Amino acid sequence: MNASRDDKHWGNKFQDMLQSCQVELKKTTQIGMKMLSASQSNSLLKEQYEKLGMLTMQSMTNGELDWSNETAKELVERIEKLKVELSALEDQVSSLKKED
């Protein structure tokens, strides 16, 4: 009888542990799904900010938007310089490719 009680006791503990693991696995899965959704939303948000930034840049360059904010003006200047640098680098890469 003692062995039977011990077996029952261990069986109950095992069931409790299994149930606890299932609960934790379910919770972890839900957290993972939420984090994946948050990551996707974050990527979409970044994309929208980039589109807004490009539209703002285009509007400032075309004179459609007159924004007296100094930081914005500095950013436009940096962007223009980077565009020139990138164009020069692309030209250099093209030249190097043609040499082959």
User: Whole-Å distance between the termini?
Assistant: 88 Å
User: Radius of gyration in whole Å, from Cα?
Assistant: 30 Å
The number of domains = 2
Mean pLDDT: 91
Percent range for helical residues?
over 70%
Per DSSP, the total helix count is: 2
Strand fraction equals: under 5%
Structural class: mainly alpha
Weakly predicted, low-confidence segments: none
The strand count comes to 0
Helix-strand topology string: HH
Largest sheet properties: none
User: Any idea what the shape is?
Assistant: elongated
Question: Main attributes?
Answer:
100 residues, mainly alpha, elongated
Compact description:
By secondary structure, the protein is mainly alpha-helical. The protein has 2 helices and no strands.
Can you give a write-up of this model?
The protein is mostly helical. The chain has two domains: 1-66; 68-100. Helix content is 91%, strand content 0%. The chain contains two helices and no strands. The longest helix is centred in the N-terminal third of the chain and has 61 residues, at 2-62. The radius of gyration is 30 Å and the shape is elongated. The mean pLDDT is 91.
List the helices and strands and how they pair.
Elements (H helix, E strand, L loop, with lengths): L1 H61 L7 H30 L1
